[in-house]
Amino acid sequence: MSADDPNQRWELTVSDRDDAQLAEQLAAWLATKVDADDAPRVTSLTKPQAGGMSSTTLLFDAEWTENGEPAGGAYVARMPPEASSFPVFEKYDLQAQYDIMAAVAEATDIPVPPLCWMENDASILGSPFLVMKRVSGRVAEDNPPYVFFGWVFDATPEERLEITRKTVDVIARVHSIDKPEERFPMLHGEGSALRRHFEAQKRWYDWALANDGFRIPLLERTFEYLEANWPDDSAPDVLSWGDARPGNIMFFEETGDTSAVLDWEMAAIGPRELDVAWPILIHRFFQDIATTFDQPGLPDFLRRSDIEKLYEEATGHAVRDLDWYLTYAALRHGIVMARIKRRMIHFGEDTDTADRDDYVMHRKLLEALLDGTYAWD
């Protein structure tokens, strides 16, 4: 996606690992994991560009025989990004992701992709990795954004409302998991969960930007605003999915039902509103890009009023302090976008700007949130 053509896919540097070598290494490793008659074969290995940018995702097929019968299937491997790829996040805890997904699958009927293996031996592929079964379905793509074309864009308003409903349903089911501090000890800590979450964002901002001399005044002003307007966080905490949005849900094309819930790397313990605010904010980020290019986008999709209403209907909990959480979501996404801007400059995929606030692609949105002038539905 460029400043001239919003429909152009961003070609992003996600990994410099050689595909053929990875396929050979995966095949040799699989031989130690399955009871195969002969050496497994790994084929069709690709690195998709349509999804997230915080890790390396490998799609591959594998086949072998067991007792003369064909075995194998389609798989997904996730790996931490190499240091050379200028990662978005400082830490990438695959074991925690694996354990969180396993615990969610055990506690609920949420369709988490079937987990196969967690490999912590970095000598196999150069880093730890996890392997899941590949699930069929379609997602609301980010790159280029679904607000310009595609199946979500072509859907009727009623069909888009159903996508919103199914997204809220997933969030509600995540939040319904009881005793999250006990089920997810890797996410638990002392004191206020929201305070821990907030302080972690400050540390991330320092690592990703400020400590290298890339201070973003708008983001720092937002930290100050949020601190000065701290919400009531006394309600019981829940498991927060983290990256809660349709782009991380796979939908069966035939029925529209949810086939898989993806990307748990931002999971946390915290207030419900962390997840309620996130899909609203991310959609408005895309919608504002569309209107900037004089395109209609999808103003009827993931509307704030719809999500608030649907969430209360699904859970019985009325959303609180949502303006604060939407501003917090814009801050968190602002750190992501500013880090990605730095990353693209590093790889020669973008150029620098004199005004550091322009590192925040949704600068106008965030400024309007701080001023209290942003118009929602």
Poorly predicted parts: 10-15
Q: Describe the global form.
A: globular
Strand order of the largest sheet: 1-2-3-5-4
Q: Tally the helices: what do you get?
A: 11
User: How many domain units?
Assistant: 2
* CATH class annotation of the largest domain: Alpha Beta
Mean pLDDT: 93
Radius of gyration: 21 Å
CATH superfamily of the largest domain: Aminoglycoside phosphotransferase (APH), C-terminal lobe
User: Number of DSSP strands?
Assistant: 9
CATH third-level topology of the largest domain: Aminoglycoside 3'-phosphotransferase, Chain: A, domain 2
For the largest beta-sheet, the strand count, sense and barrel status come to: 5 strands, antiparallel
Helix-strand category: alpha+beta
Overview of this structure, please?
This protein is of the alpha+beta class and 377 residues long. The protein folds into two domains: 19-133, 2-Layer Sandwich (Phosphorylase Kinase, domain 1); 151-371, Alpha-Beta Complex (Aminoglycoside 3'-phosphotransferase, Chain: A, domain 2). The chain is 39% helix and 14% strand. The strands form three sheets. The protein has a five-stranded antiparallel β-sheet with strand order 1-2-3-5-4, sandwiched between helices. A two-stranded antiparallel ribbon has the order 6-9. Strands 7-8 form a two-stranded antiparallel ribbon. The longest helix is centred in the last third of the chain and has 25 residues, at 322-346. The model is unreliable at 10-15 (pLDDT under 50).
